[in-house]
Design brief:
By secondary structure, this protein is of the alpha/beta class. The chain is built from 9 helices and 7 strands, in the order E-H-E-H-E-H-H-E-H-H-E-H-H-E-E-H. It has one domain: Rossmann fold (3-Layer(aba) Sandwich), CATH 3.40.50.620. 35% of the residues lie in helices and 18% in strands.
Length: 193
C-alpha cells in the first residue's frame, strides 16, 4: 500500500445501497484512487439510535459492491475509535506511507462543524465531497466551506487531490442517486437487529 491513494468512506451503512457504490466508483475514477475502504462504523455519535448488528451491515455492504478495489471493513470497531478524527489519527499512524482521502456527501459538509475535531480533519486529510440531492446550497454555504474556501480544489483538478498537502477539499457535482439508508429503513426494506 506504500504510496497508494486510498479513499475512506465512513458511515453506519445501515444499510449500504447503490448510492454508496455510485460515489465510490466516482471517487475511484475522479480522484484517481487505488482503493476505497468502506469504514463501517460501530455507531454514529450524532444519531440517537444504534445501527443494525455490525456483521449484518458488513455482509450486506459486500453484496452491494463487488469490486476488488473496495474493502469493506470494521476497522473502527477493531481500533476502538468512536469519532472520525480519532480513526484518521490512528490510520495515519498505522499507515504513514499511504495517502488517505476522506470521502463524504454534501449533507455531511453541511453539518461538518458539529463533528469532533472537524478542523483537525480539514487540516490533516484531503477531503472529497459529493453532491447529494437537496444539500448543495447548504453544503456550499456551510461554516466548513466558508472557513476553508481558499483551500477548495476545482473539480477539473480533482485527480490532484490525493497528492495535495491539506487543507485541500474538492466538491464534485456528479450524477446523483436518490437512495438513502433512512428511506430504505422507513420502507421496511431493512430492519435493525
Amino acid at each position: 500500500m506504500r504510496g497508494q491513494a486510498i479513499g475512506l468512506l465512513g458511515g453506519s451503512f445501515d444499510p449500504a445501497h447503490e448510492g454508496h457504490a455510485h460515489i465510490t466508483r466516482e471517487a475511484l475514477k475522479r480522484f484517481g484512487l487505488a482503493r476505497v475502504w468502506w469504514l463501517v462504523s460501530p455507531g454514529n455519535p450524532l444519531k440517537a439510535t444504534g445501527p443494525a448488528p455490525m456483521a449484518d451491515r458488513i455482509a450486506h455492504a459486500r453484496r452491494v459492491i463487488d469490486d476488488p478495489r473496495v474493502v469493506v471493513t470494521d476497522i473502527e470497531a477493531r481500533l476502538g475509535t468512536r469519532y472520525t478524527a480519532e480513526t484518521l489519527r490512528r490510520l495515519k499512524a498505522l499507515y504513514p506511507a499511504v495517502r488517505f482521502v476522506w470521502l463524504m456527501g454534501a449533507d455531511n459538509l453541511a453539518q461538518f462543524d458539529r463533528w469532533q475535531d472537524w478542523e483537525w480533519i480539514m487540516c490533516n486529510v484531503p477531503i472529497g465531497i459529493f453532491a447529494r440531492p437537496g444539500t448543495r446550497l447548504a453544503a456550499r454555504g456551510s461554516r466548513a466551506a466558508d472557513e476553508f474556501a481558499r483551500y477548495r480544489v476545482a473539480a477539473s483538478d480533482a485527480r490532484l487531490l490525493p497528492g495535495l498537502v491539506p487543507p485541500a477539499w474538492c466538491f464534485l457535482d456528479v450524477p446523483m442517486r436518490t437512495q438513502s439508508s433512512s428511506a430504505i429503513r422507513a420502507r421496511g426494506e431493512w430492519r435493525r437487529g
